[in-house]
Write a structure and sequence with these properties.
The protein is α+β, with helices and mostly antiparallel strands and 237 residues long. The chain has helices at 19-29, 44-51, 64-72, 78-88, 133-148, 195-207; strands at 3-6, 39-43, 54-56, 96-99, 102-106, 112-114, 119-122, 125-127, 153-161, 168-176, 182-186, 189-193, 216-220. The protein contains six helices and 13 strands. The two termini are 32 Å apart.
């Protein structure tokens, strides 16, 4: 049986900090039961705040490309559009996809995310994705094993929308300890599933969207082979 449970009473993160230690300390303080083989799904924005990835839009000067995109998408601040362009590391704006009210971006790590993973924090402050989510997932897992003696996988999740659907779901943007893909064979036919996204979406049932207060969720009962070499790269194009 697969179960999903949130780590309650997680402290509010508002500035740069050692998030791995805070996670370990909160698990201890809340007597949150975790065991070998569990999977921790962690909201990327929690990690963005812990890295200090805040950008004040008042410091951003939009390019002509950002201004032209704003004309097509007037609900998006041209300064925010510039931040999204910057995340792609392509100043031409060619890594963006814009249609109707949707704006998405291809990131250097191969991910395609709504708004390039940029989220509004408050007023003129926005948050960008954590740097190297695979490494962060590994650091958290290793710290838990060092201090609690428990070996588990970690998946970093992010809220993401689709151009063909209303609303958002959760997808994986980083992982450690578990392969991003599940491969099966039936009647000599090979099937591949993006298991990291399936688990991320499952965590979203409890994690919810911004402001729900459950940035860390445990999934128990899913069987997998622990793989310290796994990375999100195997699941991206």
């Amino acid at each position: 049986m697969i179960t999903i449970e949130q780590l309650s009473n997680f402290p509010k993160i508002t500035s740069k900090c050692d998030i791995s230690q805070i996670i370990v300390d909160t698990i201890k303080n809340e007597k949150f039961l975790i065991k070998n083989g569990d999977i921790l799904c962690i909201a990327s924005k929690l990690l963005s705040k812990a890295e200090g990835n805040f950008i004040n839009l008042n410091t951003i000067i939009p390019s002509n490309i950002a201004k032209n995109i704003h004309k097509k998408l007037p609900r998006k601040d041209p300064r925010l559009i510039q931040v999204i362009i910057d995340q792609t590391q392509d100043p031409t704006g060619k890594k963006l996809q814009i249609e109707n009210n949707f704006i998405g971006a291809f990131l250097p790590n191969g991910l395609f995310l709504t708004s390039g993973g940029v989220d509004k924090y408050h007023d003129n402050i926005v948050l960008t994705l954590p740097h190297n989510c695979d490494k962060i997932a590994r650091n958290i897992s290793v710290r838990i094993q060092q201090e609690l003696g428990i070996k588990l996988a970690v998946i970093i999740t992010d809220s993401d929308g689709r151009i063909d659907k209303v609303g958002a779901t959760q997808v994986a943007v980083g992982l450690y300890g578990i392969s991003g893909l599940r491969k099966t064979t039936f009647k000599e036919k090979s099937n591949v599933e993006t298991i990291c996204d399936m688990l991320a979406a499952a965590s979203g049932l409890i994690m919810g969207q911004r402001g729900q207060g459950f940035p860390l969720v445990k999934i128990s009962g899913y069987e997998y082979d622990f793989n310290s070499n796994a990375s999100l790269g195997e699941a991206t194009n």
